[in-house]
Design a protein that fits this description.
The protein is α/β, with parallel strands linked by helices. It contains 21 helices and 24 strands. The chain starts with a helix and ends in a 14-residue tail after the last strand. Belongs to the leucine-binding protein family.
Length: about 675
């Protein structure tokens, strides 16, 4: 019954008649083979393998889907139809729904000439064919190549509009949905309308839904999005492709948000959570839990002893255990060993702090020796069945090996320091945001705050992709392309505004360009209002040729994983560390402390680490680090909590993107 409902739902999204369909989905049942399926549809096995290359007769997964060609006739060639094609390269966050709107073509027509899209999602960077009717074709609107150009902002444009008078209790979400717009498109049509008021006249599209905004029947129901849910997860929950969900819910083009109400297929299993008569009391900007500060010390209710394992690459087997000088030399010569020891000292401080809060911990630590085989051996030779969490190792290959090995016990593995994109394991938590997450955080900050500013992008050839992404989100920006890794003040001044604040985004890792650009901007700042930004503060900014005083005068903004701890609010921790280890804690010490305390508090405020994210929403923050874990598309979690830092003329750093975040305060008993 569920399969029939979904098939009906998929076909309902297509404007083509049933007789025009060339393919259908088949849900694999227990005991079926490619041979039996081919026989039931009167097609050859080769035809099924053609459109399902991963299918193998002895390894079909129950409930997986196969694309079945209903006819083995050769595909009609484009020459025999009134069709021509545009080759489109898929961009970030693009969907079939958006492409169908951009090119004025049905989703199923796109799939028809790109067969893999019947069973796969769009992939960034791939090229697909977009069918368009040839000029001179009858009964169709002729589209010239000029009409088919995608705007520089990469957003669908609403060419025709009408007026709408806002009624009581109407929301942006409901109005956007009613007129076939996304919330973002509605806001772009009405840039001066910040809050909807009854009686206000706004501009809307002309594509009006015939049905009421809230309508349930036997085919559809409504579902309110919960915290931490993803579009990928919802597509699996309701067994429907992501682009089909977007087709039913245009507001998803503006992103999935907690509290949104989605129209979804009625699976008959009661997964919808809104009653048919409910009114649309929705917020178009549903509250994002990543902006909610969470103090877990006030939510402790699980005081069972925590089983914590720390895996670090000490490589003690390489040190002469009979010689004290050997230990000292190894610590001085081996940076990874120093980082491991600093990190572990922070772990010990966190365990002591948790003890003060009533949380007892049984702590074990093992030496990974920076070797995958050693990691595998120590897991095989020790009992991990009752471990609540594993922190470490530090290196990517050993982290992935640990997560893979411990999936059998569903033990959470927290990667403490690596910022590389990792394989997806259900139990892997990447606590340090990747460079891509940092970049996107700055993109979001610029997109929200650059309005009314004269934006100038300076990027060398190595940063061409970032430049292109910036011009998409900031379409009115000006671009300067430096030559020979040098930039003169005259070239910059020609793009500066004397009346607006100038926001200069500098994208390069070349020291020569960074030095010449910041020096020139520093001189020009005497007569112009200039702020400097970058999506990546790389090692080039640390070079002696790049003057920190210049960066301070330019109020330099950049994304960061951590912030500098506040001496006053962290005084107790600093003094305790100095008393224990006779030195000031460095960033690795504090990282070890912040991460470990966060893990222990999460374990003590919920049944387990996984349950803590369902039970408590928001971000946690400590001395230098904050944590907000988001599910990865293919499994596992990543931390997307990022600081946008700014430098002032006195070279003091402050957080500029986190108004709700308070400086760390010591937990009270």
């Amino acid at each position: 019954m569920k399969y029939l409902l979904i098939v009906c739902f998929l076909f309902q999204l297509s404007s083509l008649s049933a007789s025009a369909q060339e393919f259908k989905y088949h849900t694999v049942e227990a005991g079926e083979t490619v041979y039996s399926i081919a026989k039931s549809y009167n097609v050859s096995e080769e035809a099924i393998y053609k459109y399902n290359p991963d299918a193998k007769a002895n390894s079909l997964e129950v409930s997986s889907k196969l694309v079945i060609p209903l006819s083995e006739k050769e595909k009609v060639s484009a020459e025999n139809e009134d069709v021509q094609f545009i080759t489109h390269t898929v961009k970030r966050k693009e969907t079939l729904y958006r492409l169908s709107k951009d090119y004025n073509v049905e989703i199923d027509e796109i799939k028809r000439f790109n067969k893999h899209l019947y069973s796969e999602e769009l992939r960034r960077g791939e090229e697909i064919l977009i069918p368009q009717r040839k000029e001179g074709a009858t009964n169709t609107e002729i589209a010239s190549s000029e009409n088919l150009e995608i705007p520089a902002t990469d957003k669908p444009q609403t060419s025709e509009t009408r007026e709408h008078v806002v009624l009581p209790k109407e929301t942006k979400y409901g109005i956007a949905r009613k007129y076939g717009l996304t919330v973002k498109e509605l806001e772009e049509l009405n840039p001066k309308v910040e809050v909807l008021q009854p009686g206000v006249m706004i501009r809307v599209g002309t594509d009006v839904l015939d049905e009421p905004v809230i309508l349930t029947d036997e085919v559809f129901e409504f579902y309110e999005v919960k915290a931490k849910e993803t579009l990928f997860g919802l597509s699996r929950k309701f067994d429907v492709p992501q682009d089909s969900l977007i087709s039913l819910n245009p507001a998803l083009e503006d992103g999935l948000k907690t509290g949104m109400v989605l129209k979804v297929p009625n699976t008959g299993e009661g997964e919808g959570n809104l009653e048919a008569g409910e009114t649309e009391e929705l917020k178009s900007d549903a509250e994002d839990d990543s902006n909610i500060s969470l103090d877990l010390s006030e939510k402790l209710d699980n005081f069972n002893t925590k089983e914590l394992v720390v895996l670090l690459p000490y490589s003690l087997n390489k040190i002469d255990s009979d010689s004290t000088s050997s230990y000292k030399d190894a610590i001085l010569d081996d940076r990874v060993l120093r980082i491991s020891l600093d990190f572990y000292s922070g772990v010990l401080m966190a365990v002591e702090k948790a003890k003060e809060l009533g949380i007892s911990t049984r702590l074990r630590t093992y030496d990974t020796r920076r070797n995958v085989q050693d990691v595998t051996n120590l897991i095989n030779s020790n009992d991990f069945t009752n471990v609540d969490a594993v922190i470490g190792p530090l290196l990517q290959n050993t982290i992935e090996a640990t997560a893979s090995k411990l999936t059998q016990y569903n033990v959470p593995v927290i990667s403490p320091l690596s910022n590389r994109e990792m394989r997806s394991y259900q139990n892997l938590f990447q606590s340090r945001p990747t460079d891509e997450i940092l970049k996107n955080a700055m993109f979001n900050y610029l997109e929200k705050n650059a309005g009314g500013k004269n934006v100038i992008i300076i990027a060398d050839g190595a940063k061409n992709q970032v430049k292109n992404e910036l011009t998409q989100i900031l379409p009115n920006s000006r671009v300067i392309l430096p030559s020979d890794n040098y930039l003169s003040a005259e070239k910059i001044e020609a793009q500066l505004s004397g009346t607006q604040e100038n926001w200069v985004i500098l994208e390069s890792s070349n020291v020569g360009l960074l030095s010449s650009a910041t020096s020139a901007l520093n001189r020009l700042a005497r007569n112009h209002e200039i702020k400097l930004f970058t999506t990546e503060r790389n090692s080039g900014y640390e070079d002696d040729n790049v003057d920190n005083e210049h960066l301070g005068r330019l109020n330099f903004h950049y994304p960061s994983v951590d912030k500098e701890y506040d001496t006053a609010s962290s005084e107790e921790f600093i003094e305790a560390y100095k008393e224990e280890f006779d030195m000031i804690p460095n960033q690795y010490v504090i990282r070890g402390y912040d991460l470990t305390l966060d893990v222990l508090l999460r374990l003590a405020s919920a049944e387990n680490l996984y349950n803590s994210f369902e039970k408590h929403t928001g971000f946690t923050e400590y001395h230098e680090n904050k944590f907000h874990y988001t599910p990865k598309r293919n499994g596992g979690f990543y931390n997307d909590a990022v600081y946008i830092m700014s430098l002032d003329e006195e070279l003091n750093l402050k957080v500029v993107n986190d108004q709700q975040s308070n400086l760390y305060r010591e937990f009270k008993d």
